[in-house]
Design brief:
Strand content of chain B: over 45%
Low-confidence stretches of chain A: none
Largest sheet of chain A: 7 strands, mixed
Distance between the termini of chain B: 37 Å
Shape of chain B: globular
Order of helices and strands of chain B: EEEEEEEEEEE
Helix content of chain A: under 10%
Shape of chain A: globular
Radius of gyration of chain B: 13 Å
Strand content of chain A: over 45%
Order of helices and strands of chain A: EEEEEEEEEEE
Radius of gyration of chain A: 13 Å
Helix content of chain B: under 10%
Number of strands of chain B: 11
Oligomer: heterodimer
Largest sheet of chain B: 6 strands, mixed
Largest interface: A-B, 21 and 21 residues
């Protein structure tokens, strides 16, 4: 149980384009989803918290207009990186939390490379 | 002061030995603590959660929590080459967010 998927697993795009990453909880309803970013040899940095049906809460320093988050259902959240630039190249990981527990289950991650 | 600190450099242990990892946290009010394992190029996977002072054992893993001293540790007994990974300590913050340490790399030498 507690499986979280992400799609795509890897994406390469040109500078200036937008990229959408999907995060799905496959066998449970996720009241809250989280989006993280991880640069090489660094730890996970929380970008935003996403609650179903409401606006995402962004961490300090994360541009909400650049990283658009939509949590339209209890099993799906999307992160759109708008007008991507090479400095946005990173490993993006989502996690999902089920209501009564505070355990977060992580998706497999999406490696974004912006040329 | 960082929310979660893991200061040790890479840890090399012989196969079969015990690997010991430490983590300190800054918020004395924290209640939930987690250890995640992350293989290179992969996302983290939960190994242990601990909420009460003392030890919690799960197979070859033991988590230890001391809230008075604000530290959490992880022991890996009978270390195997498959245990070679980066281990991340995480502490739950408000609104169920997690703060992660930078991780400790463990290398198990056959």
């Amino acid at each position: 149980g507690a499986v979280v998927s992400q799609h795509p697993s890897r994406v390469i795009c040109k500078s200036g384009t937008s990229v959408k990453i999907e995060c799905r909880s496959l066998d449970f309803q996720a009241t809250t989803m989280f989006w993280y970013r991880q640069f090489p040899k660094q730890s996970l940095m929380l970008m935003a918290t996403s609650n179903e049906g409401s606006k995402a809460t962004y961490e300090q320093g994360v541009e909400k207009d650049k990283f658009l988050i939509n949590h339209a259902s209890l099993t799906l959240s999307t992160l759109t990186v708008t007008s991507a630039h090479p400095e946005d190249s990173s490993f993006y990981i989502c996690s999902a939390r089920s209501g009564p527990t505070d355990t977060q289950y992580f998706g497999p991650g999406t490696r974004l490379t912006v040329l | 002061q960082k929310e979660v600190e893991q200061n040790s450099g890479p840890l090399s242990v012989p196969e079969g030995a015990i690997a010991s990892l430490n983590c300190t946290y800054s918020d004395r009010g924290s209640q939930s603590f987690f250890w995640y394992r992350q293989y290179s190029g992969k996302s983290p996977e939960l190994i242990m959660s601990i909420y009460s002072n003392g030890d919690k054992e799960d197979g070859r893993f033991t988590a230890q929590l001391n809230k008075a001293s604000q530290y959490v540790s992880l022991l890996i007994r009978d270390s195997q080459p498959s245990d070679s990974a980066t281990y991340l300590c995480a502490v739950r913050k408000g609104n169920n967010r997690l703060a992660f340490g930078k991780g400790n790399q463990v290398v198990v030498i056959p």
